[in-house]
Amino acid sequence: MRHDLELAYLGIQVPDPHSLTPFFGDVIGLAPGEPADDETVTWRNDDAAHRIIVERGPLTDAAFVGLQAADATAFDEVVARLESHGADVAEGSDEERKVRRVQRLARTSSPWGVPIEVVVGLEPAATPFASKLVPGGFLTEGVGFGHVVFATTAFEEAHTFLVESLGVGQTDWLETELAPGLELEVRFYHCNPRHHTIAVARAPFDLPQRLHHVMFETNDRDDVGAALDRAWASDLPIPNGLGRHDNDAMFSFYVASPAGFQVEVGHGARVVTEDWDDNRRYDRISAWGHQPLRNG
Ligand SMILES: [Fe+2]
Fold first, then answer.
1. Are residues 95 and 195 in the same domain?
2. What pLDDT, on the 0 to 100 scale, is given for residue 2?
3. CATH number for the domain including 206?
4. How far, in Å, from the CA of 256 to the mean position of ligand 1?
5. Ligand 1 centre from 98 Cα, in Å?
6. Are residues 67 and 199 located together in one domain of the fold?
7. How far away, in angstroms, is 123 Cα from ligand 1 center?
8. Given 120, 139, 163, which residue is the final one in a domain?
9. Mean of the pLDDT values across residues 71-76?
10. What number is the average pLDDT over the span 68-90?
């Protein structure tokens, strides 16, 4: 499988970064990332310095997405490809590289409005990852820390940007009618063996949040169940109980964060292979399950 990019980190902006600490720490079971400034709280699900960067700000949404290139050559190729397709690419300053804990950083905008940071050399954390709540740990080796899904009215522009400018591959897509007259269309994109690193949903109008969810994949199936127990005990909304997606075959559930965006905790997704020839339409989100369990 071609492996150019993987999800390095997700930046989230909320008015109070500490407000998400019980959620990421006690419900999802992430470990604290390397310390940042007073305005920022970081989290990780593996040995990297940080995977979720929660900064203070007015957005209450994703603020940036970091994509790590496999090496310096891949970094140069991704940047050159973006520039050749007319993207404005700004090189990160020394300060920005220090804050993101990377060796190189190039920033560009995306049609869905969340800046993309192409990076290389994300620092490891000072200590190995360990979570008492997720004893089996998370699946990140060679596939990035998870996946992110955005909703946008700029659906076609997003597709062109991802496939042509960023150079990721479409894995498959979903087109289904949720209710009479209510269509759902989602396209899924890969850049390493993970079934999708980014997916984009067509929004009928501008939604309050661009980030629909971020997914963490556990190594052990039981760690998904234990996370559901913690989510249930938390009183947070659970928009989707346990289920299995039809396309990526992920066994998962979704819990809404106190900031509104959702987190999917899953296990056992299928992977994209070198000779992937299953780029096809799916007409249902889930093979089974994923019913709404508790509304906010
Ligand atoms: Fe997902």
1. no
2. 62
3. 3.10.180.10
4. 13
5. 30
6. no
7. 26
8. 120
9. 96
10. 97
CA of 196 from ligand 1 middle (Å) equals 8
List pLDDT tens digits, range 181-205: 889 999 999 999 999 999 999 998 8
- Domain residues for 193? 147-289
Q: How far is the CA of 222 from the centre of ligand 1 (A)?
A: 18
| 164 and 200 housed in the same domain | yes
Q: Is 22 a domain residue?
A: yes
**Tokens 């909703």, located at residue:** 151
CA of 95 from ligand 1 middle (Å) equals 33
> C-alpha distances in angstroms, 220 versus 74, 108, 130, 139, 226?
32, 36, 14, 9, 10
Q: Is residue 233 part of a domain?
A: yes
Domain presence at residue 136? no
Q: Are residues 73 and 155 in the same domain?
A: no
In this structure, is residue 127 part of a structural domain? no
Q: How many domains does the chain have?
A: 2
User: Does one domain contain both 152 and 44?
Assistant: no
Work out the burial of residue 208: count CB atoms within 10 Å of its CB; fewer than 13 is exposed, 13-18 middle, 19 or more buried.
exposed
Question: Does residue 222 sit in the same domain as residue 280?
Answer: yes
User: Alpha-carbon dihedral of residues 60, 260, 253, 180, nearest 10 degrees?
Assistant: -120
189 alpha carbon – ligand 1 mean position (Å): 12
Distance in Å, CA 188 to ligand 1 centroid: 10
pLDDT given for residue 150 in this prediction: 98
**Residue 220 Cα to ligand 1 middle (Å):** 17
Residue 105 has pLDDT above 90, yes or no: yes
- Quick: pLDDT tens for 125-148: 999 999 999 999 999 999 999 999
- For residues 89 and 108, the answer to whether their CB atoms sit within 8 Å is yes
* pLDDT tens readout for residues 206-245: 999 999 999 999 999 999 999 999 999 999 999 999 999 9
The string over 121-141, giving b where at least 16 C-beta atoms fall within 10 Å of a residue's C-beta and e elsewhere, is bbeebeeebebeebeebbbbe
